[in-house]
Amino acid sequence: MYTTELDKKAADSRVVEVGIDDPQQLARFEARVAADDFIEPNDWMPETYRKTLVRQMSQHAHSEIVGMLPEGNWLTRAPSLSRKAILLAKIQDEAGHGLYLYCAAETLGVSREQMIDALHDGSAKYSTIFNYPTLNWADIGAIGWLVDGAAIMNQVPLQRTSYGPYARAMVRICKEESFHQRQGFELMMHMVNGTPDQREMAQDALNRFWWPSLMMFGPPDDKSPNTERSMRWRIKRDTNDDLRQKFVDATVPQAELLGLTVPDPNLRWNEERGHYDFSPIDWEEFYAVVRGEGPVAQERMQARRKAWDDGAWVREAAASYETKHASARIAA
Amino acid sequence: MSSDWPLWEVFVRARGGLDHRHVGSVHAPDAGIAIRHARDTYTRREEGVSLWVVRSNEITASDPSEAEEMFEPAASKIYRHPTFYDLPDEVKHM
Ligand SMILES: [Fe+2]
Ligand SMILES: [Fe+2]
Ligand SMILES: [Fe+2]
């Protein structure tokens, strides 16, 4: 899963102010990123670069973690043992992605605890897509196909993002994503080749996940004021709108192959542009979800906090076991 | 001085953007000297742009005699690989 960098107050789309950095060091830094050099934890970096990365990487990590919830919803109701094993393996990968990314963010001086706290108290954001419910089994297919598909579109260029630990985490993640998308598409193939009811479930899943998937790429370029700087610093390698278009162009033929209808009456191939044209996106809905008003936003955070609280005794037991053994070592 | 200096494991980053890779070890009395020895031992021909040294006795390793039960469980989970899924030619690149 992926999240584009969302400002906490995304709806006012303010430019994050650049702090006062030493001009000589700043110039050297700018030259390095312009030359596609990688920045490592011990290198000098502008404070705004560090802050932007902490926000983007922690949001990305949170998205991987919260992204397990809509899929976990179907684990005990998967229609076969094989589908259950596949879904479990995919969810396990997403947990791993969260861990790679939290570790990478920690190299910027933010602690795991701070990030988890920010997620749980609602001050941190995660991808809007996970605040939509998973209502039928075909949603699991649609998520793999569309949501992981959109994530791949975003994550492939991030393998060349300028911050070394982030780029390396992305390389590891991208290697694992192909399975996620393929199992989803294959699941959709089974549904469309099944009974009329199953076909209808597949279409219903596409209807509900299409627009939220397009929103995953973040606000339109003219409403994302930090894009220019993020591109200059090679934090981002493509704009939101470019990636969104790429995703539409790649996905529409796949929907046709499944015999499903993309829920957009204005969708058509534009010969001149060499791209699909599509309807404007309902950005009001997007900003509402960013503000935490998504259909199942509260449920997600409750489930997250409950999992954290219910696991507290395990963390405490492990810590007290270690304390006991440490004092035994000192005594010995 | 009767005992050896402690052992340090050496990791080299070959180029910007790559992970540090383990290349070997050096003996040194402290971290600073370990870095210098590592430079002279492992990067005489521009093998790297960054070095890490870690005290060898700080590393916990898995037990080779338990390798089977440790890693075997992944062997049967072939559905973790993209090639497990048979897709039409049009979407083979997915
Ligand atoms: Fe992801
Ligand atoms: Fe992921
Ligand atoms: Fe994924």
From TrEMBL, chain A:
UniProt keyword annotations, A-Z: Oxidoreductase
GO MF annotation list: phenylacetyl-CoA 1,2-epoxidase activity
Pfam families assigned to the protein according to its UniProt record, in alphabetical order: PaaA_PaaC (PF05138)
Keyword check for Translocase: no
Domain of life of the source: Bacteria
Protein's UniProt keywords contain Oxidoreductase: yes
UniProt xrefs under InterPro entries: Aromatic_CoA_ox/epox (IPR052703), Ferritin-like (IPR012347), Ferritin-like_SF (IPR009078), PaaA (IPR011881), PaaA_PaaC (IPR007814)
EC number(s) stated in the UniProt entry for this protein: 1.14.13.149
Official protein name in the record: 1,2-phenylacetyl-CoA epoxidase subunit A
Gene (name only): paaA
From TrEMBL, chain B:
InterPro entries linked: PaaB (IPR009359), PaaB_sf (IPR038693)
Entry's EC annotation: 1.14.13.149
One GO molecular-function entry: phenylacetyl-CoA 1,2-epoxidase activity
Class of enzymatic activity (EC top level): oxidoreductase
Ligase among keywords: no
Keywords of this entry: Oxidoreductase
Transcription regulation listed as a keyword: no
NCBIfam families attached to this UniProt entry: PA_CoA_Oxy2 (TIGR02157)
Descriptive protein name: 1,2-phenylacetyl-CoA epoxidase subunit B
Lineage: Bacteria, Pseudomonadati, Pseudomonadota, Alphaproteobacteria, Sphingomonadales
Gene that produces this protein: paaB
